[in-house]
Each structure stands twice: as C-alpha cells, then as structure tokens.
User: Fold this.
Amino acid sequence: MSNIIQDDKRIIIFDTTLRDGEQSPGASMNTAEKIQIAQQLQKLNVDIIEAGFAAASPGDFDAISQICQAVDTSRVCSLARALDNDIKQAGLSVQKAKFNRIHTFIATSPIHMEYKLKMTPDQVIKKAVHAVQYAKTFVDDVEFSLEDAGRSELSFMKEITEAVINAGASTINLPDTVGYRLPHEITYMVEQMVAFVGNRAVISLHNHNDLGLGTANTLAGIVAGARQVECTINGLGERAGNAAMEEIVMALKTRQDIFEGYHTSINTKEIMRASKLVAAITGIEPQPNKAIVGKNAFAHESGIHQDGMLKNSETYEIINPADIGIEKNNSIVMGKHSGRAAFKDKLTNLGFDNISEDEINKSFEKFKLLCDKKKDIVDDDIIMLITDEKLSKNVQYELISLQVSDCSNGVPSAAVCIKFDGKEYTDAAIGDGTIDAIFKTIDRITGYNGNLNDYSVKAVSEGQDALAKVVCKVTFNEETNSILGHGLSIDTMLASAKAYISALNSYLSMKDLLKKGHIDNI
Ligand code: KIV
Ligand code: ZN
Assistant:
C-alpha cells in the first residue's frame, strides 16, 4: 500500500467492513473477531482498512490498535468526527500501524447542517479545517469526508474542499450517505469535483445501497474520475448497506471491454473466503441470490441451463468461480483416517497460513471428535473449526460439559460444568425451555445475570449431522450494551452454551479495558 503507483486507472480499495459494516444491526464484533477479518482483508490485498471508530468505545479503540499490530501491508485507518477528542483517539489508536490514516468528517448538506449540526456553512468549514489540521498533528495521511455529499450543493462542496485541501487533506470522500443518488447524478458530481480538485487530492466515493444502486453508483463514479472507492465485504453496512467490494472488483475485472485498464490490487481468489469469514463472524449470511458470493450465485437449476453448462460453462457463467476462490470438486475433504499432516495441509490450502502449532493441534483434536459424529467433513466445517479455535483463546470461562434433561416430563433442566481460574464448577437449574435452563445454570455458576436479546442457529454445511453455529446477543447485569457470542458444535444445545459463555467472555474483556481506564489514560 505504501507505494500505490498512481497510474491513471488504479482504483484504491478502502474497506470499511469493520466500521460501516459493523454498523449493520446485529453485526457487532469483538477484538479477536475484528483481527481475524483484518488479516483476511490484508490477504485480499485491500489498500486501506477502516478498522473502526476509535472514540466510539474502549473496545473499538483496542481493536484498532491491535489491528495496527496484526497487519503490515494494508494502511489502517480510524474514523473520527470533526471533534478534538475523536481525532485524538483516532490518532492514538493508529499510532502503531506501519501505514496509517485518520478519516474525519462533517456533514455538508443543508438538511444536516441545519437540523443535525445546527451550524452555519461558515462554521462547518471552520470546524472541518481545524479537524484536518489537528489530525495532521498525528498522521501524515488525512482523509476528509463531506457527509451527505449526495444531497449537498456543489458550490459549497467546492468551497469546503478547497479549505480542507489547504489544511492538508489528501483524500476527499463524497459519501452518498443515504443512498439517494442515481448513477448519472454521481457521474456529474464526480466529474465536477475531479475537475475542481485536479491532482491536489484523490476523489473517493462511499455509496450506500438504499435504492440498490451502491455498486452501480460506484462504477459510474470511477468512470467519472474517482480513484478511491469505499466498500464492504458482502455489502454489509448501515441500513441497506454499502456498495459491496466483491461486486465492484469483479465488475471491473469482468467488464474490461468497458473498464479498459481499470484495476485494483485485490487478489480475487480470496473473495469467497473473506465473504464466508465475515458471514461466520457476524452471523449475517448474504442473501442466497446475492451477486458474486450468494449461495446460488453459481447454481444452475433449470434443465436448459444445466445442459448449456455441461457443453460450455460460459453459456451461463460470466465469472469463472475459481477466480473468486471457489474450487471445484473439493466439497468432501477429509475423514476420520486423515492425519495431522493432511489436516495442516488442508488448512494451508484453505488459506490459513498464519496459524500456530498450538492452534493446529487444538483444531485437529476437534476435527477428530467431529469425524466420530459426522460422515462427510467439508471445507466449511474445517473453516469453522479453525475460526472457532482462534476465537476461543484467552477466555476466562470455559465450558467443560453440559447435560440437558429430557423435556418430555415438562421440566427442562440443565447441568453445566465450567472451568474458571484453573478450577471446575458444576451446577444445575431448571428453565422455561432447555436453552433457558442452560443459560440460567451458567448465570448461577458465574454470578453474572444475562439477558438474551437475540438468538440464531444455522447449519454450517448440509445434512442432519451438520455443525450448528449459534449466535446470540446478551446484555449482562442490566447494562445496555448487547454483547455478541458465538458457539459451534454438532449439538445445538452445546453450541448454545458455548455462544452464551463466549458473550460473557467478551463482556468481561470489555470491562477489563474500561477498568484499565484505556480511554481516560490516553
Ligand atoms: O455514510 C457516510 O456518510 C459515512 C461517513 C462517515 C463516511 O459512513
Ligand atoms: Zn457510510
């Protein structure tokens, strides 16, 4: 990333899955999860990773600083409102990155200035200039966003842009914050702004998908001269989401007849892996018919299509699935006779090349246990096993065993054994249902009072013996922040207990950060 050659048609990919993507309802991630995604984004060869919004919470600050140490080729960026404290925390959070950036913003549309900010346009310019100047005291690379540019007046956009470029901003981002614009309108706005800015700054786009036009608008802006695009994996993001990275990148690659010479740094073979990882961690699956990464994106149902595919795949496929990392004939991968070496080899083939021997050993143990219960082990099972292993490190509470009663007598109950601080604790409780009994028992053992806000269970692969992935959201001790937990097991009850305990562990590590006074001390 440090040496982006600014050839005329190189499109800089700015990924905001960990910031705008995390703003999707239900997509909150903890630090370990964000690090895993950031490492995958780096494998994709993303130019800039917007790792979070440092001032939002101690957890966000911590995740950004840890990501800075976990990646070294992508630039790491924190978002900040045009406020001194936001900028200070953003600056400190990205301090340790090899390449860093602060992304600061203020709204520029009449409706936002009048009703949200209650500021005059002159006051907004003053604040923006101060924000950029202050950000420059922490980092060299400052991006400025004109929030709601899509509904802002061009003359004001030029005025504020002139001021922030003079203050030191080197990227000017023009978000269509509410996904309102149509492609030809984006083309006009970008043409005007590119002509005005010239080579003094890179013009960037950040399109939301409220009218389903996020990708189309981004492509229209590229042709008009935008050279950075902000996007997310699977199109995650606030409300209807952001323009999807996989769609933008594959449209440029597939339609070189139109986008001749336009290129990105993205290693497209990592797209599917990134999509699956983000879905596994957030619990938000792309819709089955989602372009590029949806389950059905390469499925051919009708006889006529299947016939065409057998004769020549290009009859119905415009993208070779291998180009986004879908390998043929690898669905059934391993079985109970596979050894550790084959398992390790499989992990490498699946793209997990930075895993420790300890992680391999532990996930291999889990793999062997799974082999006893499940007939066919597929790639998705292995991906989930290693992801689960990575996420379950450095935890305070660990589930040792679980027994649930037969509900037919009408009194669901659970007996749970949990390890804490080297000792094992066992207890039992009854509940309104089996899951309730499990969670109540965990509360009795740990002394925390959890309140379940959201619960979902999904099969990782096909068949009755599929691994179950449970995602739950819990608030503890009547606090307002909902904490996400994940659990994986062939048994749904076991996966539920693990998910609840994982939420508790995340809650405790968040509390630790607060206790350390992370924010006050910086
Ligand atoms: O949509 C938006 O305007 C944003 C900005 C903060 C860039 O996400
Ligand atoms: Zn946004």
Summary: Residues 269 and 325 are 4 Å apart (CA to CA). The longest helix spans residues 492-515. The chain has three domains: 12-282, 340-391, 397-515.
